[in-house]
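Entry 12.
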Amino acid sequence: MIAYGAEYVRKSGKPNYAAAHAAHLRALKRNRRESGRQLIEACKRAEALFQAQKDKEITTAIAASQPKLTKKEALVAAAKAAKVERRRQCRIAQAEAAPSAKEALSIARRMYALRLRDSLSGKQFVDGVDYNDDGEGNELESLDEFKARVLGWFGVHRARDWTEN
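Predicted 3D structure (tokens):
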């Protein structure tokens, strides 16, 4: 067995312990890097195997739950998916339009209330019937008609109820 530092000898013949120690530290660092690389590669291989097994299980479960579709069935399924997506987009659009519709309704209510008030005397018109100097009575539009008109200004249109007519 060789004594520590015997490989590194000075010109005087004495062992150079500092050089031996530095060489030893370099060797340790190199071994640590190599073992780290080996660990990383082993982990990558294990992760790839695990992911492949997981993907295989998922695909087999999906294949077992859904038999292969014919062309017609695939078209029907695609149409259903498109219909669901259209409904989803419609719900999203309605949710985004709801605040402006509420604002339009509140404006319509306030404007309608102001139309029924006599600005000179502060009295309400009787039965919502306005009067003119010529004696003809002009009946005001209903609240629903007025709301529809104001909502139209904001670009909000409500679905008509065809059962009323």
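Annotation: The chain has two domains: 1-67, 97-165. Residues 131-135 have pLDDT under 50 and may be disordered.
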